[in-house]
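Support reply, case 0932

Customer input (verbatim):
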Amino acid sequence: MERRWVGLDGYDVVGAVRGGRQVLRVRRHGRVVADCVSVAEVARHVELADLCEVVELAARRAGPGKIAEARISSRHR
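Our regenerated output:
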């Protein structure tokens, strides 16, 4: 999975390759704002402290033909 960070106002930052060089692509609402070669460049477009890394969690498997059931803590019933 590619690493991705999201921020306020529809910004996100992903790694990309442009012209054979790795860049950090800043997008807003899906549109490319800039391809940055350093974190300092990213900071010109978005507040770094507002960025949060998106972490994909592994799906819990229930077994063949079964759907994993979400459980709620007894404290929340």
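We compared this against your earlier run and they match. Two observations from our side: DSSP finds one helix and five strands in the chain. The helical segments are 39-43. Please reopen the case if you see a mismatch on your end.
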